[in-house]
Design brief:
Largest sheet: 6 strands, antiparallel
Helix content: 25-40%
Shape: globular
Number of strands: 21
Radius of gyration: 28 Å
CATH superfamily of the domain at 211-402: 2-enoyl-CoA Hydratase, Chain A, domain 1
Number of helices: 10
Distance between the termini: 104 Å
Strand content: 25-35%
CATH topology of the domain at 211-402: 2-enoyl-CoA Hydratase, Chain A, domain 1
Oligomer: single chain
């Protein structure tokens, strides 16, 4: 093989120099582009926080580049920078296609926290995202929504003649809620009957006790749990203790637990309630996080209703924590479950407070029944006795309990 000539070495040096020149130009160009975008934005806004060009090898600067283009090309000057940031975050969350992972602005966070306390003004329904629309998840008992005969899974097409296609849950909530005594018109698509209709509802103050006890007769009592929430976990648990005292003082020997239209709530609270019905040391439910890591939650105190026969009522509005309760009761054959198939929300959300008062609701793990079943939309809780009508469900619950020995 012949030795490389001097001409060949010269050509190599020239080629390497050209690569270095153009490579440096590309890098400098990208740096100048980033600086130009940031400088353009800084001329109008006081940007705060760390600006990263990449995150996990993803080009984050595309956000600033798009923003800069909007600033120079978008026809309207009537834009709000903070709203644009919130919109970007909502887009980030929306890309997950998870109806239970959400971003709430500070104003939406305030509304959310207020509704957890069981006191607000509106129609009395909880909502969830389903593809391009928002649907009714549960209808609160004795609320305007129930009086208007709205049902779980009703799809909200319009609010006051405004199209709700591609609107978020909180967009729809903002339009539906309002001062007591005012009216709101909803156009509904009922999926069960494939029919469209409109209904005008008068808003009212929704002020409910999340737990309520009533004595049906000398031997049977009824505990209605509308949500496993209050201002905080401790407040709910104290309310449950108060109801337990009422049951004990009443002298009833059998209990109906009504979880119909219960959208869920604090996992710690449903755990606390279940401990009164299941023996110490028993697995209440199982949490499964990333990597299929499982943690068993067990009863760690002596229950106060261990020997009382119970019946649990559920329907298509029963979700999350109410399904945790019902799943445990079924797995241990602790009582009969009567009603309709539940929502199928076998995941848990974590509330993460952000620095400006906004909030992230993040699905961080799923839960399993004591026997290891994950409740999903395709496989929700199926009652032992399926009955559709409310009054018939109540009658069947009494019939089942009356057939049992005290």
């Amino acid at each position: 093989m012949s030795k490389p000539t001097k001409t060949f070495f010269k050509l190599c040096i020239i080629f390497i120099s050209l690569c270095a020149f153009f490579g440096t130009g590309f890098v400098v160009g990208r740096i100048d582009l980033s600086k130009s975008i940031i400088k353009n934005l800084e001329n109008k806004y006081a940007l705060t926080g760390d600006l990263k060009s990449e995150y996990n090898e993803v080009n984050v600067n595309i956000l600033w580049e798009a923003w800069s283009k909007l600033e120079t090309e978008y026809i309207s000057d009537n834009t709000n920078a903070q709203d644009m940031i919130y919109g970007a975050v909502k887009g980030l969350i929306g890309s997950l296609n998870d109806p239970y992972t959400n971003f709430l602005t500070p104003k939406e966070t305030e509304t959310y926290q207020q509704s957890n306390k069981g006191e607000y003004e509106g129609i009395g329904a909880t909502l969830r995202q389903e593809d391009k629309y928002v649907v009714i998840e549960t209808v609160i008992d004795k609320s305007p929504a129930q009086k208007a005969e709205l049902k779980s899974n009703d799809l909200i097409m319009e609010v006051d003649k405004k199209d709700m296609t591609n609107k978020s849950v909180f967009d729809v909530v903002t339009l539906i809620r309002g001062d007591a005594g005012t009216q709101v018109e909803l156009k509904i698509w009922r999926q069960s009957t494939q029919k469209e209709f409109s209904v005008t509802i008068t808003r009212s103050k929704i002020d409910i006790d999340n737990i309520e006890f009533s004595k049906i007769n000398d031997s049977i009592g009824k505990i209605t749990i509308r949500k496993f929430t209050e201002a905080d976990v401790n407040s709910f648990n104290l309310m449950w203790d108060k109801v337990v005292g009422q049951v004990q003082e009443s002298g009833v020997k059998k209990i109906i637990i009504d979880l119909r239209n219960n959208p869920g709530g604090y996992v710690s609270s449903v755990e606390y309630v279940l401990e009164d019905f299941i023996p110490s040391g028993s697995v209440i439910f199982i949490e499964e996080s990333k990597g299929a890591v499982r943690i068993e939650h067990k009863v760690n105190r002596l229950g106060r209703f261990l020997n009382i026969p119970i019946v649990v009522l559920v329907n298509e509005g029963s979700a999350s924590a109410s399904e945790i309760f019902t799943g445990a009761i079924q797995d241990y054959a602790r009582g009969n479950v009567i009603g309709m198939k539940t929502v199928g929300k076998g995941v848990e959300q974590k509330l993460l407070n952000l620095s400006d008062g906004s909030l992230l609701q993040v699905v961080f793990q799923k839960w399993l029944t004591p026997k290891g079943k994950n409740i999903t939309k395709k496989e929700p809780i199926t009652p032992d006795i399926e009955i559709e009508e409310y009054k018939e469900q109540d009658s069947k619950a009494l019939e089942v309990l009356n057939s049992l020995n005290n």
